């Protein structure tokens, strides 16, 4: 059984690695040549193989996303301790709240079983927007009135669809999105899927370094590539994968930088706020939306997946005015509206005040799990020299840096050793953008949402034992 797990995992990783071949290029400009090469290969294959000829370039660029295999592995192998896939805790899924919300809404009307609108349910959009403005005002201790029209609020089936549509709406092949290095690999896959390039800038414990961002933009300008920069992607709250949060000063600075470097066309900030509500320590920080109330540069995305249920899969976004029509056009072609049933469930959950109650419960539950993983890291990894991690103030990830001599990916021996011993993690190398900051192959993303405190402890013990084993 374990051999099968290893084989499946290694297959998954080699598939990813093959594709991440694109991801290892660091020189700005090379990606376009890679894309051209992919097109050339497809063209030359066309001559020989009629099957290949029917695939679009995008179909080729779409391959190799690690998310499916990681989620599949975690679900299919119940005995492996998975600190890999970003699932939420089964024990805290809101069964009763959801049952009540469904019963109430169906007692009221059959409408939730009908199609909805492209924009999404107006009542839900209204509640989400006023909730966000209230959160930002509380965090900033101000009373700023809402300056975002409801028209600029869009519901999608999960924030991932919105992130994908934004990438597709902004990027032509060869265009660039600047990301933190490391960053959320699913979004980077979406950029690659549409032929875009991701360029990574250095981070510290407070996330993306504004000076590094400016230096990257300067370099791109010097190279004549600034016109291809379309967006800066950030996860400002409890980042996936690093757990870092952008300080309020940095949020404002990044907004200034986006404004300043919008020389050829607008550079947008995509602020992915999926984890905002999972805060275990410290104070809330206003969203970038607060400093850009008319959404001139900012695209804010969020989701109920982490703070309520990923099975319901409702996400939303606050969108600059000029992007509403293109995104709606895109969505008309995609699904002409997100599932109405799940939107109405969430509208009911919000009206009953159940979302807040649930988030309070989640915070307590995840804070305990986060402590468990940090204590286990102290217990088992502190004795190993040059292992580093730090305590995020929220979210579901911990980022681990191991000694330089350990390659945590398929090229090293740690991954297969830990899988054989019963632990699955995400090799950090999959989280690095294609260009820019170098890939650190000695890193690991750990997520602690699903496992119990005891399994987390056991998983980290396996990791430490595996490190010891490969070094003897
Ligand atoms: C940073 C980040 N953004 C977006 C998403 C997508 O969430 P969903 O599509 O379920 O809303 C995830 C999911 O793990 C995430 O970690």
Question: Mind explaining what this structure looks like?
Answer:
- It is a single chain.
- With 472 residues, this protein is an alpha/beta fold.
- It folds into two domains: 2-92 and 359-471, Aspartate Aminotransferase, domain 1; 114-353, Aspartate Aminotransferase, domain 2, CATH 3.40.640.10.
- Helices cover 48% and strands 12% of the residues.
- The protein is built from 17 helices and 15 strands.
- An eight-stranded mixed β-sheet has the order 2-10-9-8-7-3-4-14, sandwiched between helices. Strands 11-15-13 form a three-stranded antiparallel β-sheet, with helices on one face. The protein has a two-stranded parallel ribbon with strand order 1-12.
- Helix 1 (2-24) packs antiparallel against helix 16.
- The longest helix has 28 residues, at 354-381.
- The two termini are 26 Å apart.
- The model is unreliable at 1-47 (pLDDT under 50).
């Amino acid at each position: 059984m374990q051999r099968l797990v290893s084989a499946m995992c290694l297959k998954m990783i080699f598939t990813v690695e093959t594709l991440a071949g694109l991801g290892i290029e660091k020189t700005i400009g090379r990606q376009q040549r890679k894309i051209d090469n992919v097109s050339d290969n497809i063209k030359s294959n066309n001559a020989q193989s009629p099957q290949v000829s029917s695939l679009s370039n995008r179909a080729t660029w779409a391959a190799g996303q690690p998310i499916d295999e990681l989620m599949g592995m975690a679900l299919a192998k119940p005995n492996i301790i998975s600190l890999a896939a970003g699932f939420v805790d089964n024990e805290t899924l809101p069964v009763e709240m959801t049952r009540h919300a469904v019963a109430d809404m169906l007692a009221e009307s059959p409408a939730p079983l009908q199609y909805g609108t492209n924009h999404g349910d107006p009542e839900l959009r209204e509640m989400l927007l006023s909730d966000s403005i209230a959160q930002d005002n509380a965090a900033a201790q101000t009373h700023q009135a809402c300056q975002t029209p409801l028209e600029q609020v869009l519901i999608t089936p999960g924030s991932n669809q919105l992130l994908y549509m934004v990438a597709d709406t902004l990027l032509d092949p060869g265009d660039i999105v600047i990301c933190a290095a490391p960053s959320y690999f699913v979004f980077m896959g979406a950029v690659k899927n549409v032929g875009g390039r991701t360029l990574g800038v250095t981070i510290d414990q407070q996330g993306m370094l504004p000076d590094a961002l400016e230096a990257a933009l300067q370099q791109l300008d010097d190279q004549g590539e600034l016109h291809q920069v379309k967006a800066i992607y950030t996860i400002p709250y409890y980042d996936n994968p690093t757990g870092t949060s952008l300080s309020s000063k940095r949020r404002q600075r990044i907004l200034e930088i986006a404004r300043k470097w919008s020389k050829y066309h607008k550079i947008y900030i995509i602020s992915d706020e999926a984890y905002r509500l999972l805060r275990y320590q410290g104070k809330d920080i206003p969203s970038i939306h607060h400093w850009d109330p008319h959404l001139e540069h900012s695209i804010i995305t969020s989701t109920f997946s982490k703070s309520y249920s990923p099975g319901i899969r409702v996400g939303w976004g606050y969108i600059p005015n000029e992007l509403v029509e293109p995104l709606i056009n895109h969505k008309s072609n995609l699904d002409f509206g997100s599932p109405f049933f799940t939107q109405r469930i969430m509208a009911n959950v919000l009206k009953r005040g159940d979302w807040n109650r649930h988030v309070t419960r989640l915070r307590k539950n995840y804070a305990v799990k986060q402590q468990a993983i940090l204590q286990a890291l102290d217990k088992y990894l502190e004795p190993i020299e040059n292992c580093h991690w730090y305590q995020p103030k929220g979210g579901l990830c911990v980022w681990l840096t191991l000694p330089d001599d350990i390659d945590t990916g398929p090229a090293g021996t740690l991954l297969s050793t830990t899988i054989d011993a019963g632990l699955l993690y995400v090799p950090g190398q999959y989280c690095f953008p294609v260009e820019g900051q170098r890939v650190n192959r000695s890193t690991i993303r750990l997520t602690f949402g699903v496992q119990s405190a005891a399994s987390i402890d056991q998983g980290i013990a396996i990791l430490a034992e595996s490190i010891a084993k490969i070094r003897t």
